[in-house]
Design brief:
The protein is mainly alpha-helical. It contains four helices and two strands.
Amino acid sequence: MAQPKSVAEWRSLCERYRSEAEEFRKKAQEVEQEFEEFVSSSKEIEAELDKELMMVARSKDQREKELYVVTAERDKLKKELVDLRAEKLSTDSRMNDELKALRLERDHLLKEKQRLEQRNDDLERELRISAETLRCTEQQLSEELEQHALLTTEVDENDQLKEQCQRLKDEVRDLKMDKKVHDLKRQNLKTVEHFSSVDIEQSSDKENQIQKGMENGLVNHDLYSTDFAGGDRNKHLRKNDVNGMYAMNSGVRPEVTCFSVARNVYPALLNLVKTVQGLEQKLLILRDRRTSVAAEVNADGARRS
């Protein structure tokens, strides 16, 4: 830098230095003011940072506590997970064992069901056979009852025939008495005796034949029926069926035959009724067992699904 040569130059140089110093002073004041502002703002920022730091520290402590709690909960959950896995494995093993047992039981129940169905079919077939046998027996019993009714009718007819024979015997006795009366009258009235003797002899011959037939138990043809009208006795012959006399001719009582047949049929009917009742009870038991087996199989299928 060149040295000034005059005072003016020194003055101008001083003025220039003063102006520069003033500018530097102003700049220094501005810088100082900015520094003060910076310091104040720095303090404010520092206070805010301290507050934030304290908040962060508190938040950190809280987060550490939460982290500790979460870590403890995580460890607990890990332990529970291990326990649950072990329990699940044991449960799966037990369930597999139960499933195998249930499958075996299902197979056994299916076989039992098939066996019961086969047994049920056999029982139904036996029931049908028993019912058919019972129907045939009832039909035979009905026929025997009809035969018994016919035999009873024949017995009644035999009783009626016995009554008729008794009446005929009474008539024969009356005729014999009339014969005696006519014999007495013959001694007094010869003409009347002639006609009366002829009638009495004819009547007595016929009555003797009838009486002999009744005494021998063989009434195979004409039977007498008497009509009394206006005091006159007229004898008429009538034909009668002799089929009802086979029991009397053979010496076998129809009541005994009918009762013996009923006595032989009744135990068989009683046994058939008891057999049918037993089969019905077995069918009911089998039906209940089939229902329970089907319910168990359905429940097993629902559990598997």
